[in-house]
Design goal:
The complex is a heterodimer of chains A (about 525) and B (about 425).
Chain A: E1 2-4, H1 12-22, E2 26-31, H2 40-46, E3 55-57, H3 62-66, H4 69-84, E4 88-93, H5 95-100, H6 104-109, E5 117-119, H7 129-144, E6 155-159, H8 168-181, E7 185-190, H9 196-200, E8 207-210, H10 213-226, H11 239-253, H12 266-271, E9 282-287, H13 289-303, E10 306-312, H14 318-327, E11 333-334, H15 338-348, E12 352-355, H16 357-366, E13 370-372, H17 391-403, H18 409-417, H19 451-459, E14 472-473, H20 475-482, H21 486-502, E15 507-508, H22 510-520
Parallel strand pairs in A: 2-3, 2-4, 4-5, 6-7, 6-8, 9-10, 9-12, 10-11, 12-13, 14-15
Helix pairs in contact in A: 1-7, 7-10, 8-17, 13-14, 15-16, 19-21, 20-22, 21-22
Chain B: E1 17-21, H1 33-39, E2 43-49, H2 51-61, E3 71-75, H3 78-82, H4 84-101, E4 107-112, H5 114-118, H6 123-134, E5 139-144, H7 154-163, E6 174-178, H8 183-195, E7 201-204, E8 219-223, H9 229-237, E9 241-242, H10 250-264, H11 269-294, E10 298-301, H12 308-318, E11 322-328, H13 333-342, E12 348-353, H14 355-365, E13 369-372, H15 374-382, E14 387-389, H16 391-395, H17 401-420
Parallel strand pairs in B: 1-12, 2-3, 2-4, 4-5, 6-7, 6-8, 8-9, 10-11, 10-13, 11-12, 13-14
Helix pairs in contact in B: 7-9, 10-11, 10-17, 11-17, 12-13
Classes of the chains: A alpha/beta (about 525), B alpha/beta (about 425).
Chain lengths: ~525, ~425
């Protein structure tokens, strides 16, 4: 038993729903109690889908448990087939139905339905959403895709995009465009947009592009084994990764790796002087392993940030993430407990978090800006505009997204230059963000902490290493601290207190403040 | 200002009910935790369930709540399913850790779920066991929010019913308001009752553990929510008496609800008039502002919160709408009798659900507005049917006079929006 307040992943049958909802002409008959239909709203509300997910639930109740839930399941299967006439059906159980052991696969197989019935065995008490999606897609491919003659033109399948995927819609468009430019035809994109009849012709492709290892690695490995299709190992997120991916595709397809890079703006945006202020900004990364690993390389190599910590919530990918973290001189945090992530962030006090919606909330509590790079998704992660993460446009999008939460370059310089100026004082916040302009309080007795600093320090008292309570800030030092711009003040305060604690000081003077600054200067 | 029509000659109390069994597109009772934990400020709700339960709470809450929430899920793992003895030991350990970390918690609800019910994990006994350890600082109670036993708002009923036997005995003649309301609305109700000279008035649930009301043979109770059938039964068992009335939605509902209580407490007509005239006029005016958008429009309720029948009564009588079908997960005829009397015969009254068949009826009727759950709203909008999310009716302050206009506005907004959006080519 484990106490969970917020979760990064849903149960495995939600992963199966993401596959079914991404596809067309497939229906999922789910043995599940009343109430499990809540999962529909993930797709209709968060993703704004204009149709119900293709899922029929048995929605059994206590009175059914006393009689015959197996015949209820068969009735639901029959009704679903009659009403929706799918090309194939997947059947399975949610966590409660797993306990009553009705064997949906066996029941459905015995019904003689005129379409393929694929049974899913998703262990709800051991595994989670990504596993559910990966396993479901694998079972569908295993059941329907058979070896066949290759297409005349060199072609590939794109594997991994699902319903409710983080920017999957736009990633597919971007990557399809790249492949087309290279002269590689796209045979099937799956699960998203594919029909069971499309899965059946996957064997015609020469190789597979694995976009999302979390949801399609098992299927890609199966295709490699059974259909003789190699698959790409590079996930094209970031400039370097996209170029490596292009080289990999060129090798697999036997085509030229020359592509049009004229729309790629990140390198110049990063090199131009306004971006100088990004240098060495301390970032913390958390999310699914694939997005975190790609973002870590981008953050270090393409934006010039300093990565101070990274982690993921999907244990299946802990090994490669740990290896990458080691390469960065860090230890990866592998956890599903957001309180552990919060503690790690509070401890490191980065200047920017690249995380999930969960870390966005953590950042808000701690007063640290955050950009979202990974699922779990939120309605915000389905923007109306084109907004991929992959390919060259993806790199452009990510540059903008990461820089947006920060104070703009020139503005940061101005804040440093005119620290105590009536307009450029730091309580005003970044000028391109919402919120009313706050006039500077002119009284010398102003509260010690600015809003950002206060939030950071009161929200996580237990996580901090600095024993603020035992150390006294002398009033001159306090005033001097206030002159430091808000986006670095938290760090300055913590460093100074840590420095004081190490030196055994109980009072912090201006001297201490600047000694600490010199001590920590790199 | 026009007066409301007289009660219909034939209401829906004796109307035939279409009963359906099939796929139900409703939340389970765990969802109630989202508003119950806001209401009871020193309570923690610990669901003993699966990852699905945790995911439901997170998804239904919509936005994640900033602070560390006062609800959570003890997720059952493989080893808990293997042996109940171990599961109980694990539960005790998790509770101890939780209470140690959250000394502000004074009430702990162990909430049963589908998996805990199926494996027959006895949470009543667990609560007794934990009470021995953690009382008096923390009181531990249990109830079920399992989807196998409860839909959506029934979770609150199940929770309050579990509290009733633990309430102290009293011989005082007191009015008890039953059902959780947002604090601001509860305060308005208490002010209205005070103006009628009725008091003391107690509330179930109380905002804090130390303020829980007593109950006894001289307790008179009024329900503020229509889904409290089990709680109603538990209070009657304790000797309390129910004041039957329409539910306090809209000006008419609020007035009739207050009148029933006023009659019980012998309030004079003059006092009643003096206390209610001004807010009644305000409520009518506020409703009228939105009723223009609603008048003559048809409405179809899919079963969701059990508020459907009183709301249909409000919308047909005070806003001039026509009800096509009023679906409810369960029909408590006793509790809803006064509302059914006021709802003119005509609409199909349905209980239970077969969602595909019901959606066929929606498509055939093409109502101007369909009240449904979040899973169905966008698909229906995409078919050109305006919708109102049922969940908002439960989460928003909609009771009593001062919210009557807001309640009408919730239904008018989707229609207004459709009218003002111009998405064709600009002229």
């Amino acid at each position: 038993m484990k106490l969970t307040l917020w979760t990064y992943e849903g149960p495995p049958h939600v992963g199966a729903m993401r596959v079914a909802t991404g596809m067309k002409g497939l229906h999922y008959v789910l043995h599940a109690p009343q109430g499990d239909t809540y999962a529909d709203l993930l797709f209709t509300m968060i993703e704004r889908r204009n149709a119900r997910p293709p899922v029929s639930y048995t929605t059994f109740q206590a009175r059914d448990l006393g009689s015959d839930t197996a015949s209820l399941f068969k009735q639901t299967c029959r009704d679903a087939y009659e009403r929706f006439k799918p090309e194939a059906i997947i059947v399975g159980a949610s966590c409660t139905a797993e306990l009553i052991q009705d064997d949906p696969g066996g029941l459905a197989a015995s019904m003689g339905l005129p379409v393929p019935v694929i049974a899913l065995d998703l262990p709800s008490y051991q595994r989670k959403e990504n596993f559910g999606a990966d396993e479901t897609f694998f079972q569908i491919v295993k059941a329907l895709a058979k070896p066949m003659e290759r297409s005349a033109q060199v072609s590939c399948n794109i594997l991994g995009p699902t319903g409710l995927g983080f920017r999957h819609r736009d990633d597919v468009t971007e990557i399809t465009g790249l492949l087309t430019q290279m002269g590689v035809a796209v045979n099937v994109v799956a699960p998203m947009g594919a029909r069971p009849s499309d899965i059946a012709r996957m064997g015609a492709a020469h190789f597979n592009v694995l976009l999302y290892p979390e949801t399609a690695e098992a299927a890609a490995r199966h295709c490699e084994r059974v259909l003789g299709q190699p698959f790409t190992k590079t996930v094209p997120i970031g400039v370097g990764a996209t170029r490596a991916y292009i080289a990999e595709v060129a090798r697999l397809a036997g085509v030229s790796a020359k592509v049009d890079e004229s729309r790629l703006r990140l390198p110049w945006w990063s090199a131009s002087v306004d971006s100088t202020y990004l240098t060495g900004k301390r970032v913390y990364l958390f999310g699914d392993a694939t997005h975190v690993m790609a973002a870590a390389r981008m953050a270090r190599d393409e934006v010039g940030f300093e990565v101070v910590g990274m982690g993921c919530y999907n244990r299946e990918f802990a090994r490669p993430l740990r290896a990458l973290a080691k390469e960065f001189g860090l230890e990866a945090l592998i956890t599903e407990d957001y309180l552990e992530v919060e503690a790690a962030i509070a401890e490191l006090h980065p200047e920017l978090i690249l995380g999930t919606q969960m870390e966005r909330h953590i950042g808000k509590r701690l007063g640290i800006p955050c950009a979202v790079i990974s699922a779990p998704v939120h309605v915000q992660d389905f923007p109306a505009r084109y907004s991929p993460q992959m390919g060259f446009e993806g790199a452009n999008v990510m540059f903008d997204t990461w820089v947006h939460p920060l104070v703009m370059g020139l503005e940061e310089h101005l804040l440093h230059m005119f620290r105590e100026d009536f307009e450029f004082h730091d309580e005003a916040g970044a000028s391109h963000h919402g919120g009313q302009h706050v006039a500077r309080v002119e009284t010398p007795e102003a509260p010690v902490e600015a809003t950002a600093g206060t939030a950071a320090d009161t929200a996580a008292p237990e996580a901090g290493a600095a024993p603020s309570g035992e150390i006294i800030w002398l009033s001159d030092a306090e005033k001097e601290l206030r002159k430091i711009p808000f986006f670095v003040r938290g760090k300055a305060k913590r460093n100074t207190e840590k420095f004081a604690a190490e030196k055994g000081l109980t009072r912090i003077s201006i001297e201490t403040l600047y000694e600490a600054k010199a001590h920590y200067a790199r | 200002m026009t007066d409301l029509p007289p009660p219909p000659a034939r209401g829906c109390r004796e109307a035939p009910v279409l009963k359906e069994r099939g796929q139900r597109e409703v939340f389970c009772g765990l969802t109630g935790i989202i508003w119950l934990h806001r209401k009871m400020q020193d309570a923690f709700f610990l669901v003993v369930g699966s990852r699905t339960c945790a995911h439901l709470l997170q998804s239904a809450a919509g936005v994640m709540i900033f602070a560390e929430p006062r609800f959570g899920t003890a997720i059952l793992e493989e080893k808990d399913l293997a042996g109940l003895a171990d599961a109980n030991a694990e539960l005790d350990r998790e509770v101890a850790r939780l209470l140690e970390r959250r000394p502000d918690i004074r009430q702990l609800f162990l909430v049963g779920s589908c998996p805990s019910e199926v494996i027959k994990l006895d949470l009543d006994r667990a609560a007794e066991r934990l009470n021995v350890v953690h009382a008096p600082h923390v009181r531990v109670l249990s109830y079920t929010g399992a989807g196998t036993d409860t839909t959506f708002t029934q979770g609150e009923d199940s929770c309050l019913a579990a509290m009733v036997p633990t309430l102290p005995e009293t011989t005082a003649r007191e009015l008890l308001l039953v059902g959780s309301l947002p604090d601001v609305v509860e305060d308005q109700a208490l002010a209205l009752l005070a103006a009628l000279g009725i008091g003391p008035v107690r509330c179930l649930p109380a905002r804090r553990a130390g303020e829980m009301p007593g109950v006894g043979p001289d307790t008179v109770f009024a329900l503020v929510q229509p889904f409290l059938g089990e709680t109603h039964g538990a209070l009657v068992k304790r000797g309390a008496r129910h004041v039957a009335a329409p539910f306090p939605f809209g000006e008419e509902g609020t007035t009739r609800w207050l009148r029933a209580i006023a009659d019980e407490f012998g309030v004079s007509p003059e006092t009643f008039e003096a206390a209610t005239a001004a807010p009644r006029a305000r409520a009518r005016k506020a409703v009228a502002a939105h009723a223009e958008e609603l008048r003559g429009k048809s409405i179809f309720f899919l079963p969701d919160s059990q508020l459907e029948l009183p709301l249909a009564r409000f919308l047909t009588r005070e806003c001039g709408m026509t009800a096509v079908e009023v679906g409810t997960p369960y029909l408590h005829r006793d509790i809803l009798g006064p509302d059914l009397d006021l709802l003119a015969e005509g609409p199909v009254i349905s209980e239970g659900q077969d969602v595909d068949l019901q959606l066929d009826r929606v498509r055939a009727a093409r109502p101007d507005l369909t009240v449904c759950g979040l899973g169905l709203a966008n698909p229906l909008e995409a078919e050109g049917l305006a919708t109102k999310w049922a969940i908002e009716l439960v989460f928003s302050p909609v009771h009593f006079y001062e919210q009557a206009g807001d309640l009408a506005a919730l239904f008018a907004r989707p229609l207004t929006r459709r009218r003002i959006l111009k998405l064709e080519a600009a002229e």
